[in-house]
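Sharing a chain and its predicted structure for anyone who wants a worked example. Both blocks are below, sequence first, tokens second.
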Amino acid sequence: MGREVIRRVLIANRGEIAVRVIRACRAAGLGTVAVYSDADADAPHVMAADRAVRLGPPPAIESYLNVGALIDAARSSGADAVHPGYGFLSERAHFAQAVEDAGLVFIGPSADAITRLGSKTGARRLMEAAGVPVVPGATSDDQSDAALMAAATALGVPLLIKPASGGGGIGMKTVRSLDDLATLLPQARREAQAAFGNPTLYLERLVERPRHIEVQILADADGRTVHLFERECSAQRRHQKVVEETPSPAVTPAVRARIGAAAVRAAETVGYRNAGTVEFLLEGDGDDARFYFLEINTRLQVEHPITECVVGVDLVRAQLAIAAGQPLPWRQEQLTQRGHAVECRIYAEDPGQDFLPQAGPLLRYREPSGPGVRVDSGVVEGGAVSVYYDPLLAKLITWGESRTESLARASEALSRFEILGLRTNVAFCAAILRHPDFVAGRIDTGFLTRELATLTARPALAPEVAAAAAWHAAQGAAGPQGAGPAATAMADPFDTLRGWRS
């Protein structure tokens, strides 16, 4: 692939990831174009970009998921390239193809790679052929109940029923008795069809109490691929991550070398290009721990900042450079880890009410700052959280020379995160960080489910906090104040990141 001319990037997203991409583009000397729905006309990402183009009404299907409107916005604004962020259309092959067909650069993998990896069963077959370990399971072209029941009988219980085109746990069913299959198979098939437009199912052995480990990879257009080590993502609920950290406290140097090599092999198998994440389940402890391929996420991950802090590479800047045809500037042995980082996802939701999403004005919003503290956000004080989109407010990222230091900084920063007007999960995140099992690094993917009652116990509101809340409610939103996302510096642990060299 030759060099591509990229002067202006349209960010086909909103919120904190749009602000994050705009910041990286500015550092690379590139112009930026934001897009917005009517609900986001005054949003921080719109204010941060050089230009902004309206897409349509608030519903995502009429705005951020409207491929035609996004392509028109890119053309009318003079953009050369499109960054999809994550969520929305970021893993949709038809969007990547539409961008390419419009003569624009898609800052991500090719439409072909997205298509090949979009089928979980197809990806499993590719990885098996490449020698990448996969969870023992059964995929079949015969999707009849009889065929799947026969496969389940041969595989044995416990097992999982999984949609071939799914993600996020939608349509997934746990089977502990073969007698339950007659009921669970039709349910899973209906949910898969409704969510993904594809009722195809496959079966996997249920790995009891695994860890969720993912490996960050970068691949250039010349076929060179490196990994940037692993992230621990086991603190999750309903298959959605809440707290992530790197390095994983469970991954030994020997396992790190093996799982990193497997991730590179997985990416090379499909001719992957740009940033991606190879996800694995980890079973067992120590050097003998086994890992199994889950999927490749064909986009930037929400939790990418912790890798940036520990490895010292700006991943969004790397995406831009790869998309422009620049080769990777490092060999694998030149990439090293320094210290430890943790990320807490801050949501407008009520953990005490089954994590009910919140919407409304942010009467007070003040982000913590300090050594080793970074906040990536997409909101400001005086703004509002919409009912139309994911209620992620910010990501709190902390770094330290040791795991103990990074966790201590995270706990202290959470105590200084001031948010009034909406319920949030700040206290929930703080409870996770101080739980003995998390502190000891003894968690698995079922940790939050098992400990939910303990972690969501709501302490009494201190009188001074209640008084402050009442005062701010009476005053109303006084307009944007404090450290907004466009002005928040990247408080990375290094004085300078190991930036991309042309």
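Comments welcome. DSSP finds 17 helices and 23 strands in the chain.
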